[in-house]
Each structure stands twice: as structure tokens, then as C-alpha cells.
Structures
1.
Amino acid sequence: MSLVTQTPQWQALERHWQQLKDTRMGDLFAADPQRAERMTLSAAGLRVDYSKNRITQETLDLLCDLAGAVDLPGWTRRMFAGEPINNTEQRSVLHVALRNRSNRPILVDGTDVMPAVNAVLDRMETFVEQVRAGDWKGYTGRPITDVVNIGIGGSNLGPKMVCTALGPYLSDRLRVHFVSNVDGTHLVETVRGLDPATTLFVVASKTFTTQETMTNAESARAWALASLGDSAAVARHFVAVSTNGQKVAEFGIDTANMFGFWDWVGGRYSLWSAIGLPIALAVGFDRFKELLEGAHAMDEHFSTADIRENIPALLGLLGIWYANFAGARTHAVLPYDQYLRYLPAYLQQGDMESNGKRVTREGVAVDYTTGPVVWGEAGTDGQHAFYQLIHQGTQLIPADFIGAIHSQNELGDHHLKFMANYFAQTEALMRGRTYDEALAEMLAAGMPDERARFLANHRTFPGNKPTNSILMERLTPYTLGALIAMYEHRIFTQGVVWGVNSFDQWGVELGKQLAGVILKELEAGAVSGEHDGSTAALLEHFMQRRT
Ligand code: G6Q
């Protein structure tokens, strides 16, 4: 199996970058008045303008040839058909089935998964309605006012991000909180002020063995029972979301209060499953369904549109262009929406855990860059912090700007000011400012010639920085679902080009093992394992100071 770098399509792109690397985007716009129109696509409520990229029609043709060479359409078909494309874990990858609102059969080992998916959705709906209506009573007969989701990684980031993003849709009488970190502070600070009699814990863990989650769940149970007294109260105050019924029962949660999912749902792709229970509790089941519908609309687009008109595929290919041919090492996600403030952290996991891989599906070491570092911050805060480096630093940082035409909180002229920044930044990143422009501006302002000439270099911006502008009418459950699914398929596209398995996470598994070994030593109060000098000294120091 040859690496993608040996394909003629890859090599053509390498040559093409050499030809194009000094081309100015401004010149490309000047030469083609239709460029913005030609390089804008719409689907599932999202409008994506990718014209401010360092590309020509030839670049797009070559990138699409590359997608053909790695058989992106074939891999897409295989994913949607339930084939076990997660080859190291021998699993299907079917988050698309969780939001398959068409109910078209999707087979895993010859069995249609849709009846099981729909059955869990039905159970979730019944439960959510009971809790939201106040009909699900706590042990003392009082309705639930607070839900605490205990989970980490994929069992936390997605629901937390979505519950924050859907702020305007939150219930007034049911607050949802998230505890993930095993640092006791997280649980203590979260339950401070909550009443055990009206608090419901959702213990969310695919495996139900994750150290952080199980530790937090046990402490939460102790906190609840310290006040409620009777262990029978657990049945009214704890529900589980898991694939592991046996462990759920061992923990003491009645499996009647367990919402299941399946091994073909990866943690970081699981917010569409029962892991989304806190979302449905927070915004109501109808809104949760709208979220699924938006994602489904994006799935339909991704699985049917030609690559040239396919938003996630093109965004993925543009990322390949910068990472593998232009030398970019990071990708910035910059939402101009305060409700989307956790989106960068969510995508950081989605992307970096999926494509942070060093061998191909076949286990061959790659000789090219794979997943970039994904980072970002909600605008305009980032502008007053790290944008400096994007504008004038030495690294090439492609960036996605995400915004909405209507704010969920129209307050005076805030939204116009906010979006003025959104538009101005992508324009400035592309245009830059030449030495002569900087100089002329300072001289016109009356600055002495010598001082202006000294400062002109500092005030010069190279520009030609690539951005995508993603706009939606309004941030709703539907558009949010579409946006998340767009990024999932962008990640998928890149994984296919790099030939990696985007759906395993052996690095995460390693972390789980390592901490277990050291914990035993900390509990025993003595270093017994084999450690490097630094780790051994750190452990000794820590244990001495604890006694
Ligand atoms: C996600 C990862 C990882 C996982 C957590 C929690 O894709 O596998 O982030 O979600 O480690 O695992 P559990 O849900 O099994 O507790």
C-alpha cells in the first residue's frame, strides 16, 4: 500500500504550490469578479464563502483529483453503509445513524440499527418530558431543578458545548451543570448550593470504567446520600448513559434508568446519542430533534453532493492544502457568537483525537503532516489577544470565521459592531497593509518623516492570510447541528486523504493506563515502579509533603 505522497495527484499539488505560493489573493479577486460567487456554497442553513483562500480553479481541480485518488466518495459510502471502517477496533462508524431522520435502514452485521436508535430516542423523550414537567420526582417527592452531567472527553464536551450554544432555548426551571475533571474542586464547586433532594445526576460513560467519571459519580452518590439517607434514593437521583449495563448495575444504578448506545458510536461523535440526554433535558426533546435534523441535512449534503460542491469535503481539502503543501501547523476556529465559546475546545477534541495519528490504517508510518493543532476563541476577545500573531507572526494560520446574521440577543447596535469586526478581520487578513500604505497613513497624520519611516515596517501587514467565512441566519438547534456535522465530515475527509483511522484513540487509552500505575504507588505512599529520575523525584517530593 503506497502512501498518498507517492500519488501523481499529491505530486501535482506540490508543484502547484511552488507556482502559486507568491500569488496574492487580491490579484485573484481583481482578475475574476465572479470569484466570491463561484467560491460560495450553501447547505443545511449554512453559507460558506471559501474565496479568501490561496487557491485558483486549478488548485480546486487538483485537490478534487486527490480526493478521487484516495476514493473519498467510496469511504463516505462505506461509512454511511455501516462498514467497519474503524479497522483497529473492528467497528462501524455510525454517528450518522443517530440522526438519520429519514429512517432509511442502516445495517451493521446484517441488522438494521434504526429500530434500536429510535427506541432509545423514544425512551429519552419520555424521560425528558417527565423531568421537565416535574413529574419525575426526587426521593422526597420534589421535582428536579438541577441536572448534573458527570462525564469526560466525548461524554462531556459535546453536551456542554451544545447546552451553552443553545442558551436562548434553555429551560427556566431546569438548570444543567457539567462535571468532568477528577480534580475534586470541579464537583465541589458544581454541587455547592444545589439541593440533593432536587438534583438528578446523569452519569455518562460509554465504558463506565473511566477513572475520572467513576470517581466523580461515587462522590456525587455520597453527597446525595449524606443528605437523603437511604440508598434507595439512588434510583430517583441517578441515571446512566452507557454501553456497559453490567458496570452500571454494579455501580448501583437500576438498568431501567440506563440509556444505551452502541460501540459504533465514538465518544467524540456521541452527542447525537443518549449522551445528548443533558441537551434534551436542557432545551426539550423537540429542540434536540431539530439538532439531529440539522446534522442529518448536512449528512445528506455530504453524502450526495459532488466534491466540487461539497462543503465539508472542500473545507477538508483546503485544510490539506495548507497543512501538507503550504506548511501550516494549526487551524483556528473563531466563532463570532458568544454562545459558541466552547466550539473551539469541542473541535479540538473532535479533530485532534481523530486525526492526531502517525501511522496509516495499515500501520505504516506516514511521511507527511496529519492533524493540525486546532484552537480558537470566541470573537472579538481573540482580536485583543492572539490575532496579532495571525496578522503579523511568521506562521501561516488558516482560520474559520463563524457568524450569524441575526443575534439571539439584539441589543442596540451590538450586533452590527460585532459583525463589523467579523467582516473587517477576514478582509484585513487578506488585504494586509503595504509599507507604502503604512508610511503614507502616518505622514498624512503629520508624523515626522524619520519616525514614520522607522515605524512603517512595524506597521506593515503581509496579508494574504486564508480564511473561510461561515454564516448562518441565526444560531438555532438546526443550524448548530449542521455546523457540527460539517466539521465532523471535514475531519473525516482529511482522515481519508491522510489514510489514517480517524476513529480510534490509542493515545487516550495510554493515559488511562499510566495514571492507574502511579495511583497505586501514591496510595501505598512509596515509589515502587520503574520511573525516570525526574518522575521518581517528583513522586518522592509529593509523597513526603503529603505526610
Ligand atoms: C472520545 C474518546 C474519549 C472518551 C472519554 C470518556 O472519542 O474516546 O474522550 O469519550 O475518555 O470515555 P467514557 O465515555 O468511556 O467514560
Note: The chain has 23 helices and 13 strands.
2.
Amino acid sequence: MLKLGILISGRGSNLMALHQHIQTGGLKAQICIVISNNADAPGLAWAQKQGLNAMAVLRPDFSSKAEYEHKLLELLKQNHVELVVLAGYMAILGKPFIQAFRNRIINIHPSLLPAFRGLHPQRQALAAGVKVSGLTVHFVDEGVDTGPIILQQIVPVLDGDTEETLSERILKEEHTCYAQAIEMFAKKTALGADERT
Ligand code: GAR
């Protein structure tokens, strides 16, 4: 059973969807730890209510990013995490962290990368006037929203879409695609698997 460590910052709907897929047997994995970098994240309160091993680890409580991420690594390793899943984790991971879990960190981003990296990708898509957008699940490397792509799903942009309506349409797909990508990782069919140690 693939052991997951899930990092969140906010709402946590992807975390909830993954939990649901695991509960119903659709995803053969185990959530070993949930870490939020935001004490007020609704996803954190939800995870604790579910009885998941969930905690806030806050950057300001540490004197440097390196020390903060060292703590994250310690917790992930103590919990025997095999795959780190970023689920709306809104911070850039440092090199030592990425090296420690090379090809074992994945992220979901609400655009068809390499288009619309960074913040507000749905707003960027609307501003660009594209007729399709979507989501990308990818391995995390040292860049921002770069790294080998595991899967992508196209989502149409409709006339009259606002950032909210487009985000909702993409999010609905995120909730099935993230589990699918984790299943691919577990079955070692995800691109980049050859490089895994
Ligand atoms: C999701 O749409 C996710 O793709 C996005 O944040 C949202 C988190 O929602 N992530 C990024 O933009 C990362 N660059 P959630 O907290 O409800 O899962």
C-alpha cells in the first residue's frame, strides 16, 4: 500500500477527494500524514476531524526555510512516506527537500502546463482568451510548476466563464485525476518512474 504524505495550505478539497477514493477502494494508498503550513486551513480542521494524522507546521516557527523543511522531512520520514502529494500547498519547496524525495513529490496545477505557471492560472487562461484549459499532475523539480508531466486533462473554457466558474469546472476534474495519477505512480507507469531510486 503506497504511503502518502499530503501537504496542504487551504481548503483541502483535493485531500478530501483522495481520502474518499481511498475509503471506497478506488485508490490503494494510505494517508500517513497531512501537514498544513497554515494553522487556519479548513482542510487541516477537516483532516483532524476525520482522525487523520494531521498537523500544522508553520514556517514562522522556524528560523530558516532550511530548518522548516528539515522538520517536514523528519515528519515525512518518521511516517514512512513514499510519495509526497502537494494538494494546494502554496509554497515553493527548497532544493534539499526536493533532493530528499527526488521523483517522489507530485503536484496538481489547474492549467495545461507549461501554459499559465504560477499564481491564478485560471485567471491567466481567461485573460489569454484560450478556449481550452485544464489541469496537470507533474513531478516536482526545482522550478516553479515544472517537472515531468504525469497526466493532463483538458477542460473547456465556456463563454461567460468567470475565474470562479472555470476554477470549479477544473477542480471537479482534479478530484478524479489526482487519484488516477497516484495510481499510475503506484503501478510505476508514471513518466519519470525510471529515474526513481
Ligand atoms: C487546486 O485547484 C490546485 O490545483 C491548486 O490550488 C487548488 C487547491 O484546492 N494548486 C495550485 O495552484 C498549485 N500551483 P484544494 O485546497 O481545495 O485542494
Note: Residues 163-186 form the longest helix (24 residues).
